[in-house]
Each structure stands twice: as C-alpha cells, then as structure tokens.
Amino acid sequence: MDPNSGTTLGLIPTWVQTNEDHNVSRIIAPDIIYNPNFGVGVHGRVYEYSSLDEQWSVVAGAKERVEREFNGEYESGRSRQERWSVNYSLVYDRDGTTRFYGIGNATPLSNETTYVDQQEFAQAQIGLNLNHTWQLLYTTRYKVVDVLPGALNDVPSIQTLFPTIYGLGTNKEMLNRLGLVYDTRDDPIIPSRGMKWVVYGGAAAKNGLLNDSSYSEAGVDGRGFWPLAPDTELAAHVALHYLPGTGQVPFWALSNIGGGESEIGGEQPLRGFGAGRYYGRDSFSTSVELRHKVYTFDAVTTLIDIEVAPFADLGRVFNRSSTSPLDQLHQVYGVGFRGIARPFVVGYVDVGHGSEGAAVFTGLNYPF
Fold it and tell me: CA dihedral defined by 36, 103, 318, 361, rounded to 10 degrees?
C-alpha cells in the first residue's frame, strides 16, 4: 500500500503486441479502479516501442473526484548511435494525495498535511552525442504549479499548519539545466553491466530565464551494474543534489527523498516512505539491489522473466552544504518483484520497511 495514496482496487485488461522477433512492440492497458478518497476512476494507456531507438507513450485518466492526469512522451536516439538524442514530455497532473511534513531531516509524522498538487509542464531534453559514451544534455522545462487546499478528510490541509510556507498558491518555473553524461550501460532500460554518471548544473526562475527570483542547482547522479552470476546482477545508485545560495525556493522545488522512483535533479527513492516525505535544500540518496532472475515463462507471444531483488535505500536531506551527507541517514530495507519482457518492459512491485512502517510501490521501469 502506497503511504500517500492508500489502497486502490481495480482491473487492468492488457493487450500486448509483439513484432517478428517476439519483442513487445505495443502495450494497450486501460483500467477501471476504485479509491475510497476519490471514487471510481478510468485510465487509458498506450506504450509504443517502435524500435530500439524510438518509443512514445500516452497516459490519460480521471477519477470521480479531484484527480486528473495526462502524460505524453516521445523519445528518439535512445541508443546514441546518431548525433542527436531527444525526449519531449507534456504533462498535466492533478494529485490529491500529496503530503508535506515541513522542512528538515527530522520532521515528525505528527506534522503530516496534505494538498492538491496541480502541475502542468512541458519539457524538452536535447542530447549532443559526442560518441556512444559521452553526451552533453540540455534540459529545459516550463512548469505551472498550483498548491490547492487538501481534499482528504482525515489529514489536515497544508494551509492549517504551514500557512506561510513559500510556494503556496500558483507559481511558475522556468528551468534550464546542462549536464555531462558518461554512459557505458549495455542497455538503457534493462541494464546488466556498465554505469551511467551525470554531472549537472542549472538555474530556475519564476519569470523568464534569469532574474531576482532565480535559484541555482548542482548535482551528480551515478548508477552502476555488475554481473555476479549468469542470472544475478548487483545494481547501485547514488545521488547528491544541492541548491546553493540563500534565495527563496518554493517548498515543492526543494530537494526531496521518499517514494519509489529516481529522477535526476528531483525525487529520490526511499521505499519505506511516501513520495516527498523529507524536504530540504540539499539531499543525498543511495540504493543497492541484488537482482536475481528466478523464473522464465512463455506468455504466448513473448518470454517473461521473473526477478526478485532484495534492496536497501539510505538517504537524508540537509539545509547547509557543510553538513555531512552520511550522517543521520534514514534507512529502508525491502524486496522487489519484477516482471521483465525484454528488451523494453519492466513492471515492478517494491515492498519496503522503514521507521514509519511498510510501504508498497508499483509501476513500470526500474527505480534507477
């Protein structure tokens, strides 16, 4: 059970199409679900895997109350064989489950508040491939964030405990980021060996490119994969994110840890806590997984590998760059279960346990 979303029940009929090589080429997955907070909902999903180099997806859905979403993404040049790689995203998301506990590494569970997080953003990532290993990556994103009163009856709204926190109401953000990427992984989705390192810096502002509302960022993100046996790999991830300076930053743009996903320059996994459990100017996160294939079966049109992955997540946030990232780490231990349809699809269930109890996360793709 996701600590933020609670229990959701539903049915997801799935149609999988494969090509002549028996690789998945398209997934169509509508659903009908029920969540006690937001009622009945429906979604439509199309994932198109045109080739090893190109893919696109569209996800749209709505529930009876509060929540709406649309996510469209197109990616080309994934194999970095050509000069340019691109990724375009267009997103609208209205999430009624978001939590905020305050700022700092020791915010108590008793400070739990909620808000409706409505985001609209367009993002483009353009990579100049210097060769197959090295890439210069430019990211630009325009985002509108509306922090609205909470919609959960049993959790106080953010405005009750944090009426003066910077970032309430409607805010706009223009981000520009430049990164240097070193990538030797044998596959960008289901890697078994190699590593990827990204060193980046950027600036974000409420209006325009650079002005008195600007704040800067810098960070490093690394992940490595080492085969230990024919069906076993060790996977590790580390991320440091800094917001240097003393200027005001909207609380939702601060470094944060919690949840089941890793985003460069954004949320980092701590799979025993809900998304965004801890916020601070700076953050450190690291994860280790032992991924072991335990079974393979024929799903009529393609082969499915079942993988079990015990994991550990460690992380913290801090507000001074002089603070040691390795002190007072939050710890999560758990196990992941993955279904893999090579070469494009990973579905996961990750169960983690931390100091506030157990959490369950599901979705597509590895956490890192």
Answer: 0
